[in-house]
Amino acid sequence: MNPKLLYSRYMAQELVRRYRTGERDFIELNLINIHLRDDCLVDINFSGANLEEADLTGTHLINANFSHANLEKVQISYGLLINANLSHANLRNTKLINTDLTGADLTGADLTGADLSNAILVMTNLTDANLTDIKTTENTISCQTIMPNISVQSSPDIVIDAQTFLRRYAAGERIFKDIVLHRIDLSGADLREANLSKTHLSYVNFYEANLENSQFDKVISCDFRNANLSRCNFTNSQIIYSDLRGVNLAGLDMTATNFTGSNLQGAQGSFNFLDVMFFCNTTWISGEFIPGPVNADAHWSRSIIEGEF
Prior knowledge:
alpha/beta; Pectate Lyase C-like; 2 domains; 8-stranded mixed β-sheet; two-stranded parallel sheet; 10% helix
């Protein structure tokens, strides 16, 4: 095997080991060509680090710090850079295809030649960023995106307000594809059987809403307190920084659901549970805080008995 590849794998294994023991600061390290695909590195600090040509495909880098880091020619496609600090980073020729940059700070970053095809730029700060020769597609999402000249840009055809969404639902629409619901109030709404699995949801107020038998894929900083989520489908969903205290979970399918920074304390009802559920910085139904990252089976090392919580 190529010695460089062997060393890269060793570096990755060592970094992940240190991360899982609680270390978060990896400042100014030389991590050229490191391979960290599909890892969970929430809150990691790579400020000033050299990650040139690294492979971070599919990695969860929520709230990560890459300020002044060298990310030239890095592969971060399908990654989660939600609320990440990328200020003054070198992102020349970086692949950010299908990457979620919701709330990310790219102030002063150099994105020359970067590929942002299908990327999500909701509340992304690009003030003073260099966007020379960047690649985008019609599916690259902008919503309250701060551009280099400090203007605010949103994709006009897909960013929908609460009134429009509720009107479409009342007219019989149930499958909502390729739209953005951001900072809207749907508290108390009757939205049974809504398919939101292809909808970008961020900072939506679902307080006491009836979402019975609805479908989700990824939700960011949403308020579900006391909502009815009975018989909903959360399979393979990302539930990020969301409040689910007191919700009705009866019959909810949480197969392979990933909870990051979320709170389920006091949730009610039995639900479908499998050991592939994943937790990071999450408060469980019982009030237990699970720092993670860890899957349910490894955390409890036994089966959960229905009704135990």
